[in-house]
Amino acid sequence: MVMVEQKKKRFALFLATSDSDFVKKTYGGYFNVFVSTFGEEGEQWDLFRVIDGDFPDEKDLDKYDGFVISGSPHDAFADADWIVKLCNVVQKLDELKKKVLGICFGHQIITRVKGGKIGRAVKGADMGLRRISIAKDNEKLRGHFDGEVPGSLAIIKCHQDEVLELPESATVLASSEICEVEMFSIGDHLLCIQGHPEYNKEILFEIVDRVLKMKLMEQEFADKAKSTMDTAQPDRDLWQKLCKTFLKGRSEQV
Predict the structure, then answer these.
(1) Where does the secretion signal sit in this chain (predicted)?
(2) How far apart are CA 81 and CA 62, in angstroms?
(3) Of 101, 114, 205, 239, which has the maximum CB count within 10 A?
């Protein structure tokens, strides 16, 4: 019998934010937060700190099975060198039809690359736990959720920008009263989520406290954000299932 060694799946995280002292101390960095949320045993995950100008060589992009673009304190519509380069890399990944999961800033970057419009959120910044409505009749979501698509999911939100106009090829998968485009997909290779499937309560609270200390939000807004988690939690298991199945296919155990 000839034994064929299965090729190890390989993924890359494009980290568009810096590690806070809290995240470094508690988790060893955001990379570990993402890998613990979306990764599985036997996979290889590589970190590229795109916020610092760290990108893979273009010739190496095809070696990866999928990519995740993180959130960021920066505007996805800005023209800093690293943001422009990130857009160029995402354009190449789109051409290669590579799986790309965009989260918050990443969700907006993909919108920009595909010709949509992004800008300041119409109803203002959103921070805290939100329940968003899911497109139950979407065939793609039925596949990701093994046929049982939930009517709504709770997710932690932390953003001041949003998708104002979708790319022509996009399909809306979730929306809310606060944000019309909470999640969308393009083809079978791009999935974009405005919220943070990887966040938990302590990460949210630390961000709120840090932003409050920087005097970038009012105490009332901070208290309201924290109060959203008094009696509720994000649906992390279901978000994990969705994101893992998107990145790896239905054959993976999620």
Answers:
(1) none
(2) 23
(3) 101
Q: In Å, what is the CA distance from 75 to each residue of 48, 105, 108, 120?
A: 19, 7, 9, 9
Tens of pLDDT, residue by residue over 169-191, are: 999 999 999 999 999 999 999 99
At residue 38, φ and ψ (nearest 5 deg) are -110, -15
Task: Give the model confidence (pLDDT) of 58-91 as tens digits.
Answer: 999 999 999 999 999 999 999 999 999 999 999 9
- Kindly report the backbone phi and psi dihedral angles of residue 207, in degrees, each rounded to the nearest multiple of 5, phi listed first: -65, -45
Residues known to be catalytic:
104, 196, 198
Question: H-helix or E-strand containing 184?
Answer: strand 183-186
Instruction: Give the position of tokens 């997909």.
Output: 185
> Please, which residues have CB within 8 angstroms of residue 180's CB and are 6 or more apart in sequence?
162, 163, 172
Alpha-carbon distance of 65 to 187, in angstroms, equals 16
Query: The tokens of 252 are what?
Result: 């993976």
Token output for 87:
């857009």
User: Are 68 and 106 in contact, with CB atoms under 8 Å apart?
Assistant: yes
The CA distances from residue 58 to 7, 63, 89, 113, 144, in Å, are 21, 10, 8, 17, 30
Task: Name which of 61, 17, 6 is nearest 203 in CA terms.
Answer: 17
Phi-psi region of 253 (alpha: psi -120 to 50; beta: other; left: phi over 0): beta
Separation CA 195–CA 197 (nearest Å)? 6
